[in-house]
Fold each of these.
Amino acid sequence: MAQGSADWIEALAELVVNDIEAHSPMGPMKWEKQGGGERVVYPAPVELVGGADDGAIVITGFSLDLYELLAAFDHVTGLQGYAHGLGPYNHDGPHLSLEGVYQGHEVWLGVLADPPEGEEPGLQLDTSDSA
């Protein structure tokens, strides 16, 4: 593997994270390699600590700036949104599927609205009253 060959993956990860606007406190975005240029990204769950909902695990809603994401690709060959899951790779929830070329590399990118079942929380949010 050539030196610096993973730089494009790090640049793509940073691009996706920068194009996301969380609607409430969000855990870190997690990346999974599916094979070759196939990547899946999703938000880590958030665990509520303290207060009436202590121990609850929640998923943060977010917006993704598709215009900025698409503009960064050399070429886009496919873009699909799945409101209820299914589609290629049978992801269980809503997700976006993007195929194209990024910095000269063929990429299939799946952006999941929800993390895979069993994913551990990436953030603990204190919801107890501070008064």
Note: The beta strands are 20-22, 29-35, 38-43, 46-49, 57-58, 62-64, 75-82, 95-102, 105-112, 123-126.
Amino acid sequence: MVQRKQRTHRGVSVTEVLIAATLVVSMIGLFAPLSVRIGRVWQSTRQYRLAFNELANQMELLTSLGEPDCQAALPGLKLSGQFADALPGSQLNGELVSDEDGTRLILRLNWDRGSKSEPLSLVGWLDAAPKLVGQETPQ
């Protein structure tokens, strides 16, 4: 009987190293942009939540004033200090609209989001009981 020598591979071939390196580079190429995009979505969500909270706070304050005081306060609207820092380039404005539905206050908040987008809006009514269409006013 002739004995054959079996060769055992001790180490890694160049082909295996190239395949492993290619896989690692492709995984980094996939996950790096994804992680950046996720970070931007988190930041955008945080800014949206802060903007909504600021609008809700301003709405609560203005609707509690009553119509004449609310109208007088609208030109001087500005964001609270912490919100102004968190929302770059922010602009807050409001308007009173009176029609058959009653008197409502519309607040709009816009800030620099990196792309062109609609401002965040919130509507609140100043009248406790607006007139219904066809309903007569009591005399």
Note: The two ends are 123 Å apart (CA to CA).
Amino acid sequence: MESKQVYNGKVISVKVDKVQINKKSTIREVVEHGGSAAILPLIGDTIIMEKQYRYPVSKDLFEIPAGTLEKGESPEKCAARELIEETGYKAGNLKPLGRFYMSPGYCTEVMHVFVATNLSKVESHEMDDDEVIEIVRVTVDDAVKMILKGEIEDAKTVCAVLAYAQQSKR
């Protein structure tokens, strides 16, 4: 019925929409995001994971590498770029694992998840200035245990690890 842009930033924009649902007028706040890619990097059965401080939740989180798609960039290219930037590893093989909406109740972001194998260390790489990342190596089995104990709380990491663990059992 009506839409008003209330914020336009580097990564997201926010709009407030007046919509009609069940013949009743209501308001929906929508965070618009251009999409992202996440990578489950594997050396054998070991995941190259990150421990990273996240300001919005004021704590360190265990995560897989991920990042926002640049304008016109494919999810595969984003995944390959982010893997190098955040871990210093280049994927010899990048295979799609799945895709999901991050939080469809208020956000348009679709995350594409890839499994990266045949990793090789790059000579040099530059992280974003605002990132402080510690590389942590965790086996797939230990990552599943960490999820079940509540030690891994990041949604993309939970989804990727559990999907991979289930898929590799087949």
Note: The chain is about 20% helix and 45% strand.
Amino acid sequence: MLHAQGVDFVAHSPSGHEIASVAAIERPDLVVVGQPADLSVADTVRRLSRLRPPPTVVAVLPTGQEHVVGYLVALGARGVALRAGSPEDLAAVIASALKGEQHVVAGLHGALAGSVRPRPLEEQPNELLSSREREVLACLAQGMPNREIATALSVTLATVKSHLVRIYAKLEASNRNEALGRAVALGLLR
């Protein structure tokens, strides 16, 4: 699958320590982290995030580790997929990461929503988003599709779409996954 996307394999290791060491020496553009034998996925991603410049990281979570999705996104992981997911899902996550976008597979949106919540208005950094845009963002974090957001906020579908366009522009995101990742990184969701 990696070769089909034009990705050359530099190294493979079952050790999180070794993955970080090899990345520090080889400076790969992309590191895909599965389940290392000696560290958790989150600890391995944290080590990789300390490298300068940090590589693009895609984390592949085993079942039962869904609770770390928000942490991985906050660490800067460009993609998060499920080990039990389809090869197509992983390919989409890797393709997005290689384009510089953030992508969390749909099966993990619920876990992401459970790990983040909107900050109270008085704690919002720099008032980047309007209060309505923050409400739409909170609905996104809960994994709601556009129609559900429209119903929940008692607005039209067109209004939701226009809020999303403004949110994407303000967060410099190209899709909802990237917007959620940037919102977590900026502290708009916690």
Note: DSSP finds nine helices and four strands in the chain.
